[in-house]
Amino acid sequence: MPDLDLAFAALGDPVRRALVTRLAHGDATVGELAEPFDLTPQAISHHVGVLRRCGLVEQRREGTRRPCRLRADQLALVGAWVDEQRRAWDDRLDALDRHLDDEAGAR
User: Fold this and answer.
1) Taking the chain, what is the end-to-end CA distance rounded to the nearest angstrom?
2) What is the rounded distance in angstroms from the CA atom of residue 2 to the CA atom of residue 35?
3) pTM score over 0.90
4) Which of 20, 104, 8, 106 is nearest to 54 (CA)?
5) Angle CA(34)–CA(69)–CA(12) in degrees, nearest 5?
6) Could you give the C-alpha distances from 68 to 22, 71, 98, 102, in angstroms and in order?
7) What pLDDT score was predicted for residue 2?
């Protein structure tokens, strides 16, 4: 399971969010990931390292290539946490609506 604090910190950076979006479409090397950015491959490699450490990306060796892959299962766990929070807040807001309706009906 990803460390949620590390995952949210990693996803707080727009470059890393863009990398996650790109990797959602398929595996890519650091060089391929660097193409649309005005950043060096070393800078992209640093961002990939952050995503690897929080468990959202894995890298493997294929000969001389080291493609990166999004760990969609781990990203889904982050999404599940967000969904859980959304449900809890929806429940709270629904309860507040009912309370306000009850108060207005009592007047």
Assistant:
1) 51
2) 27
3) no
4) 8
5) 65
6) 11, 9, 49, 55
7) 64
